[in-house]
Amino acid sequence: MELSYVQTTCPYCGTGCSFNLVVKDGKVQGTAPYHRSPVNEGKVCPKGLYAHEFINSGDRLTKPLIKKDGKFVEASWDEALKLIAEKFKSFKPDECACLASARASNEDNYAMMKFARGVLKTRHIDHCARLCHASTVAGLAAIFGSGAMTNSIPDIAEAKTLFVIGSNTFENHPLIGRNIMRAQAKGAKVIYADPRKTATGKQADLFLQFYSGTDVCLLNGLMQEIIKNGWEDKDFIAKRVSGFDDLKAEVMKPEYSLENVSTITGVPVDQLKEAAELIGKSEANAILYSMGITQHTTGVDNVKSIGFLQMLTGNLGRPGTGVNALRGQNNVQGACDMGALPVVYTAYQKVIDPAAHKKFEDAWKFKDGIAKGENGYEVTVMMDVLTDKPGELKCMYIMGENPMISDPDLTHVEHALKSLEFLVCQDIFMNETAELADVVLPAACYAEKEGTQTNTERRVQMWRKAQNPPGEARGDWEIIADLAAKMGYAEQFAWKTSEEVFNEMATVTPSYGGMTYERLNKPEALHWPCPTKEHPGTPILHGEKFGTPDGKGIMSGISFKYQAERPDAEFPFLLTTGRCIWHWHTGTMTRRSENLAREEPTGWVEINDEDAKALGIKNGEMIKAISRRGEIQITARVTDTIKKGVMFIPFHFVECAANMLTINALDPIAKIPESKACAIKVEKIQEA
Question: Which of 561, 555, 553 is nearest to 246 (CA)?
Fold first, then answer.
């Protein structure tokens, strides 16, 4: 018996915890603590503890599959790749679309981005950041010049106050929650704003229970109160900010008086006053947020408003401050950094910038050029184009994504994907999206390959191979490189190792330019930007100036707008969605982990106890939840911890999929869907 420990990085949320994989006789058998990482210091959440359980699941994909006469049959790699290459060659560039993956490595995502733009010549590449933090990227880039979390995870413990809004941190990012507790132990006050009194809310010093979708109203009200009392940081505003007069003109309007804000948000005036004073007088206030802020038709407005509050109070560029956008998936930050978006190359170099276009064209050396320098379609827009403009998009290559669970209005998504002429899915399991594919390619999981991922705080960390992939499964970038070779581009994809992929990427990516595997192969790794081999990395952004052309943060006035669909007489309740501690996103991995599945085997709908009483619904009863787009049968969980008039459903469970109900209304800038607010009704199931 041979026993070994392989240190790696967790494949679940964006925290980026490290642990050891326990390997016995060449197979991963368990996890063990790795104490040297500053992110988690040997601690892990339940998902990390059981991150080995899905790896050797009996239903892993092991051979390429081709659909013939409506059924999948096994094929050789050569046969599958030849078929894909021939099909892809038959479509025009703008008829093709690619989806990269927040679950895959930086190397995998760079390879997919290069394949899309260089081989298929398509503008249309995106990934599931569109569904979680697209509004963070757009919003923070617009006001700070960089669309990323500004401070480090350990730095959160240095805050004097913490304002957590739209993030159930203790369940969704538990090891970040640990730093909230550390700050609190040193005397920090925690303000928590959410429609639900979650595990995070129960530990807060001040809980603001507000209606989902009223974030801008709440934030404008807090800013009015801060300005009225003279608590704004006048020196910071004078030296480091432009547009303050525009902001002030908006937030000082009568509609943002605390009395009016209280009526709209449902938060009592005295609590709003207390929150404004705590933030306004704090020596160091950190804001933490996640998808409760971003997944709205006003997602970009919400993000900007958070940034304005921090600029107003001078809480940027210092320890214990910052705008801390907590990323939901292990490498959603990295996938964005790698240019797996329709408007940028790596490091957010705009595709419409002729200089950036020429830079990549020259670096990649495709004799027939690369995709034209125009913005492409976002994944949410792709789905609309497929249903509304038949024949415009015809083929799609999806790597490690499952839109049939993750995207809003699943009936619409199914219709869209079924209208494709050719669909290729590359994944570790057969999932609901892959079932619709023409070809399915078996990929290696995180434990079966080398690579890097970038966590929510911009820390670039290593994956290390612990075992071989099952059967004929292969690494994502390796599959892409072989497919590129079949299509006549072997020279541009001649990598032999993941390190070679990374090194090429670093040469065209300024923020990663000083990084190498050798430098990353240490417990603290490196935070981008790290432009040179001598640079130590940048844990805290915006210390002296912002990333804007003049170095100043940009304020403006943002008016409050309601969500796209409000409750009415027919659909009287407001639905919001999210995660639970035991599961992750579409459940593909966690629901194959025995210990996690046992803890939370299926979904539920949280209903306020007063609402349940009025509806005659009992705790544990199976009911129908219905929206204008679909209905599901689901168990009622009656509680006094959710705001009256609001309901909550976790989105992990295909048998009661929350996204059967959610609306495909999009933020006009980020094109992110409004997953956190739509109108529903619930009904008792009538016995036959």
Answer: 555
Whether 365 and 466 map to the same domain: the answer is: yes
Q: Which residues pair with 607 in a beta bridge?
A: 638, 647
Q: Find the angle CA(354)-CA(505)-CA(452) to the nearest 5 degrees.
A: 140
Q: What is the pLDDT of residues 331-365, one digit of tens each?
A: 999 999 999 999 999 999 999 999 999 999 999 99
Q: Provide the sign of the torsion angle of the four alpha carbons 84, 89, 92, 93, taken in this order.
A: positive
Cβ–Cβ under 8 Å, residues 534 and 514: yes
Q: Is 396 helix (H, G, I), strand (E, B) or coil?
A: strand
pLDDT (0 to 100) of residue 128: 83
**Which of 270, 296, 325 is the C-terminal boundary of a domain?**
325
CA 496 to CA 501: how far, in whole Å? 8
Tokens 């999932």, residue located: 431
Q: What does the alpha-carbon distance between residue 434 and residue 416 come to, in Å, rounded to a whole number?
A: 14
Alpha-carbon span 623 to 617, nearest angstrom? 8
Could you tell me whether strands 573-578 and 678-684 are parallel, antiparallel, or unpaired per DSSP bridges? antiparallel
**655/674 same-domain check:** yes
Q: Please, are residues 318 and 284 in contact by the beta-carbon 8 Å criterion? A: yes
Q: Do 290 and 324 meet the contact criterion of CB atoms below 8 Å apart?
A: no
| Residue 597, token pair as written in the block | 């599945």
Nearest to 581 by CA among 568, 569, 595, 567: 595
Residue 449 covered by a domain: yes
Calpha distance 91→422 (Å, rounded): 10
Q: Cα 375 from chain centroid?
A: 21
pLDDT at residue 1, rounded to an integer: 67
- The answer to the question of residue 521 being in a domain is yes
The whole domain housing 353 covers 65-131+330-527
**Final residue of a structural domain among 277, 292, 325:** 325
Q: Tokens in use for 553?
A: 């943060």
Shared-domain flag, residues 261 and 293: yes
Domain check: are 383 and 303 in the same one?
no
Averaged pLDDT score across all residues of the chain: 96
Is residue 371 a contact partner of residue 96, using CB atoms and an 8 Å limit?
A: no
Place of tokens 């065209």: 508
Q: Which of 141, 180, 144 is nearest to 163 (CA)?
A: 180
Residue 142: alpha-carbon gap to chain centroid: 19
Domain count, the chain: 3
159 is written with which tokens? 């805050």
Alpha-carbon distances of 246 from 251, 303, 311, 531, 646, rounded to whole Å: 9, 17, 14, 35, 34
Name the residue with tokens 């908006």: 250
d(CA 227, CA 88) in angstroms, rounded, equals 58
pTM above 0.85, yes or no: yes
Look up residue 171 and give its two tokens. Answer: 């369940």
What residues are paired with 606 via a beta bridge? 637, 648
Query: Averaged over 83-94, what is the pLDDT?
Result: 98
The DSSP letter of residue 601 is -
Is residue 125 within 8 A of residue 101, CB to CB? The reply is no
CATH classification of the domain holding 659: 2.40.40.20
Which two three-digit tokens encode residue 435? 């079932």
First to last CA, the chain: 59
Instruction: Examine the domain organization and report whether 76 and 148 are in the same domain.
Output: no
| 162 plus 271 within the same structural domain | yes
Rounded Cα gap, residues 330 and 349, in angstroms: 23
